[in-house]
């Protein structure tokens, strides 16, 4: 799949000019705990309970690449970062000078995409996206550090490359048997549990796991058919079934030991067309929960409740819709947390009775972390 989170977020940015409602007086409500972030994406809690956030950056002055939105210039720079936010809301960029490609405005960036800690917070892993054919790294050598999985220590020291996710896609192309599949890689989400590190490659439509024996394909989320949208000059009539790529944007280890994967879906981004998939290593993926739209992240609460983050409430092709955070209990109806609060949310972490969301994840300088009460 040629999935680039920059392009999807660019679509969202064009339709998501929505104000968040104010909390009623005296009632616990959404709280912005950090501002001024550059395209914030995935997040996780570190060794001391601080919140670590992957910032995709704002690109830079080298505008010799292709534009994130297609057509025009895409700008490269070492503006990606990993930022740590303490319990008082103080933020510090503990890893900087990471590769980033963005539009000339600095928005819709590709760069650091997610972070996950294991071994009690003693070791972390973060992904740096690509959103292109891995061969682009040869054409544009400045992007050689993109499309990879990195190790990071609690001090902020980057302890080398743990895996070349884009290189794995180039060598194996796990979704080659799917309709309209291409060689493309965009390492998006990462889950580190014990000695295993799993990555959702949104470009490759695949889940890759790294362990003592090296990388292996955990699974490929299958493509589906969706009705063609009604847009000018589209090559087929509205309603005609067309292949829709899966675009797995999130992966998390569940309380049962299985992996759970959320999908954004590819064009035409059908409303209700995204699912949460369950993967047991060695078995084919199965649909766990359906009826979602543009999923960007997943998290489990300590009680086993699943939380699903959506970038939008409806298809990216259409009128403005806010993001959503949805509680999915083991039994009973789903509920939305703080409706109307989120705009282009891209990352989620849950701690106790609170959810932490990377909001305005497509914007340079305007990104923020929002704390939402879950009870």
Automatic annotation (TrEMBL):
Q: InterPro entries, from UniProt? A: 6-blade_b-propeller_TolB-like, ScyD/ScyE-like
* Keyword check for Signal: yes
- Which UniProt keyword terms apply here? Signal
Domain of life assignment: Bacteria
Residue ranges of coiled coil: none
Question: For this UniProt entry, which residues form the secretion signal?
Answer: 1-25
Q: Does the keyword Oxidoreductase apply?
A: no
Q: Write the protein's name.
A: ScyD/ScyE family protein
Q: Species name for this entry? A: Solirubrobacter pauli
